[in-house]
Amino acid sequence: MTTTIDRPTSENAATRVISANGGANIIISHGDYNVVGTRPVRHDGVDKVTGRATYGGDTRLNGLLFGKVLRSPHAHARIVSIDTTKARALDGVHAVVTAADLPAAEDREVDLGEGGGNLKHMSDNILASDKVLYKGHAIAAVAAVNVHVAEAACKLIEVVYEVLPAVVGIKDAIAPGATLLHPEITQKSLGNDTGIHSNITKHARHQLGDPDAAFAKADVIVEREFTTSMVHQGYIEPTNATAMWNQDGKITIWSSTQGAFAVRDSTAEILRVPVSRIKAIPQEIGGGFGGKINVYLEPVAALLSRESGRPVKLIMSRAEVFQATGPAPGSWSKIKFGATKDGRLVAMTADLYMESGAYPGSDTGAAMLCIYAPYKCDDMRVDGYDVLTNRPKTAAYRAPGAPQAAFASEQVIDELAEKLGMDPIEFRLRNAAHEGTRQVHGPLHKKVGGIEVLNATKEHAHYRAPLGTPSPSARRGRGVAYGYWFNIGLASSVSISVNGDGSVTLIEGSTDIGGSRASIAMQAAEILGISAEDVRPSVVDTDSVGYTGVTGGSRTTYATGLAAIEAARSVVAQMKARVAKVWSVAPDDVSYEHGSFHAGTHSMSFKEAAHHIEDTGGPITGTGNVDPQGHGGAFASIIVDVEVDIETGKTQILEWTIVQDAGKAIHPSYVEGQLQGASAQGIGWALSEEYFMNSKGEMANTSLLDYRLPTAFDVPMINTVIVEVPNPGHPFGVRGVGEASIVPPMAAVANAIHNAIGVRMHALPMNPGAVLHGLGVI
Amino acid sequence: MDNVEYVRPGSVSEAVALLAEKPGKARALAGGTDLLVQLKSGRRQIDRVVDVKGIPDLTEIRVNADGSVLIGAAVPCFKVYSHPAIIAGYPGVIDSVSIVGGIAIQGRASLGGNLCNGAPSGDTIPSMAAAGAVALIAGPSGNREVPVAEFCTGPGQTVLHPDELLVAIRLPAPRAHSAGHYLRFIPRNEMDIAVAGAGAWVALDSHGVVTEARVFLTSVAPTPIGVPDAVKAVVGTRGEDSALDAAAAAARAAAKPITDMRGTIAQRVHLSGVMTKRALAGAIARARGEHVPGAHEAHRVRTNGAAH
Amino acid sequence: MVAVDAHSTTKVVVVATINGEPVQFLAEPRQTLLECLRDVLSMTGTKEGCSDGNCGACNVVMDGRLVNSCLVLGVEANGQSITTIEGIAPVGGLHPLQTAFLEQAALQCGICTPGFIVSASELLKHNPHPSEDEVRFWLSGNLCRCTGYDKIVRAVMHASDIMRVGH
User: pTM here?
Assistant: First the structure.
């Protein structure tokens, strides 16, 4: 279905600089609207600050049972037998299920939008059938009267394993003679089946020109290797699901998810029931960042409900969240870039290895699309390798794959600039991609704001500020980095219904993780010519709204916003026809501007027109269904100042500024929030977060004590600059903002540490021990 | 969590009897910030929880006539760092209780609990030991006293018999020109278990020369350990760099850490030296009357003239 | 049917004051105060993030002090006065912190917000005019993954200004 895109009405309006909080939050703003660009209180806000909002774990139903999952203690083992007899006999236990209760899964690919994969792998990840492939892999599940009885029952399930050698890291997995996790899989390379049995399941490549030859033109070449550790999205709300398998065969699921339709579709595939039998009701969600797109508990809850005849709720413990959901992959990157002495990139190659964990399918594909996207170069090649390891199957974490690649590539860029004696931002400007630049995988960049982002970074007061005096045993430094995320579209559906008092209800299917209800309502309000407060948005279940893709991929404000705009335009058209009836004129004679309908000397506000709906033909609803292709990529850059204590290796973040092109910030506070949140995640990824695994594939730090997320005491205020280079594919110019911001942080911190102490950090995390090692102190 | 029985005695003798009834299967509950974590994870399995917060001796802070201070074993951190006598007399102890686990943990966690948990990484043990604290223990066969410096015998192990109760910790009366300082190294700025920590205490004569000192390390051995050679290095000096460097070297030699998810041997040995030097420097400065902020006051580093 | 174990699973009557109202509930000794609030009393405003005292999502005020309710047994609440997020707002209105969080957009997913508000309200009782560092130190026990803390700290400091002027 095509979507009509009007040019923004204020396209030629001058760019304005809007500053808040004493210059800490800047918008280089393009376009002037009534509602878009303002900061109304979000519609779901009061419920969330009072604790009234219902999150997945808060689900309460009559007769609810509580479930617990038994998980493998081994990272790699064959399941010889499972005996659930004693568990079933325990007082208070109502159901026990294993993979035997799932239909035999077919070895085929399923497409679930963002998410999906091989059905047998998905099913086995829910409940292991023949093998366990990571410590924490689900084996069986129990439903009981309370969670304590369910835990006690799990302990009574007897499982016999044949333990196999664990392959824990990328280098272990690709070493000759490594134990194969999936001996039946043969490697796909460059589109062909190689017939090779390997833990590298896939090799892909993008190439422009001939970089190997082009290195001969370089005056300076930097070649480096980098590794990053597996990290977790770290959402504060543990993964959860509640299900009721009714006696009539209908299944209802309540969960915290980034996509109710993804829950419905993947659960339907795994349980082998038609989607029409499943209703997925999204509860409020306490953080996702890509980690709550796949289902982990929903099919289990459904099976337990089928056996017990009661609704069943499962909530993961924090240790289960770390060990049994979908963390972001660790990586190994080999980068080689060459530049001429006047600072032009002439040759770029990269080999990116990323772990997919227990099953195939990692983030290398996305990383390959982003690593070179910020730069112009005629001769580039990137090779991506998906590697199986005995770790939980990896999943998306906010710009999946791109941050790991940028940690590597942006340090090499930094080193090239330094060797050439050039300012790091100047070097990037000299090579910056723009509209029309060819990307390594072939397409040309559409209109993008990379150069504007770099200029705003260069001109920011932070970049000129003195570093200040460090403590006696410390050194200070400043670093910058730059990154890109392509953003996606996917389908969305929105319905708007007009109330007699001139307010409207807006029904949408995008679960609200970061304030998107507000930005979608604001876009509708802008078109309708009413206030944001007069729109009542609701996020509804899969029976109540048209198909809507996940809240992820930085698509929601863009795509669901487009659907809201389309629905609003339909409402306006219908209102015009009603107003025409009231005035006895032709609908084409009615115009709608600045919140008023006009025809000749007649005028009527939206509110007044709404009073007439009942008498002029009954209800007015408008629907927008979109599957847009006009999403626009976003660039982000970061300036960071650090102080490194050279006696302890500890890095403090002194000052942080993030600049990002949002196209148009619908609700600037929530755009700033995305930039700030991603910055803090980047700080944790840079300095303290990692999966600390032993050689048997056991994660040692499964609690929030030792998996160290940054606290409020670890980060400073985070300065933001929103640059607005409108995306032509959206009436207000929206570009997704949720992901580009997490691409540069770790490289920026690494470059700052290098500037402070002269040490190149080749591995994440750059924790104090790693810095001491880099300094040669230990 | 497995089922437990919950009892709340009103006196020391009652508590001791309840512990003695279930030797090894009953445990005193003060703040619960260690015990509940252990019970929930299954790391510890007991039948009976003895809530000691109803016993006055364990929940009060008392300043004795001789100036010594008794801190009940179950007194939460926040009461310790709010008490004027402890603020005035034991700044090293204040350092410790102010950084244990964050504000909500400090609302419950106690010095006594930290000591009885016997973790090699206990944050309050080095500062108590450096202050010369003594543990007061009650048992079925009577009371006894053990210096805090000797209380821990191994990871999670203490001198307490299963039927004994830690009642209180006694800090000796503070002396003029003396002070303690506790510093730990953690990867973040709060909420972490110490990778290495040092609690130092010094007494100076009227010329500013160190006459007495105590140095204890945490997280670098199976128990918190004293470093007599670090003491020797500073006694008789004014805490010059050379003396502190020698103390640091002694700390490095004394440290016997392991490599685990929180740190490597090399890192911990190195940090033993750094933390010892800094803790001693801070103790000496305080003993001279200078203000040295605790970690909770001084951790965040601010820029100068930043772009705000 | 096998009995759970040989120990008594008899529940204990707990009598407490929650948000100013007298409450009685039954609890097994092994149930934490968090579990009692959420599952026994259906007060789901207090959240569970980690169960071991490291995230602050379960913060409540007990006997005048900020605590992690995941590390308090329900039976320990007997005779205590407890304030949860449900008791922060005055009847029919919002606490200045709640208003500040809304106006400053200091929440994104909102799961950590009840814990932050309970924690910050205690901070402002102890220290009505905290510096940025003092706010950050106090709130270091409350983890947020969405906001990067910037707007939360601004909201708390803004609320402290409002409350000092007595609005």
Answer: 0.97
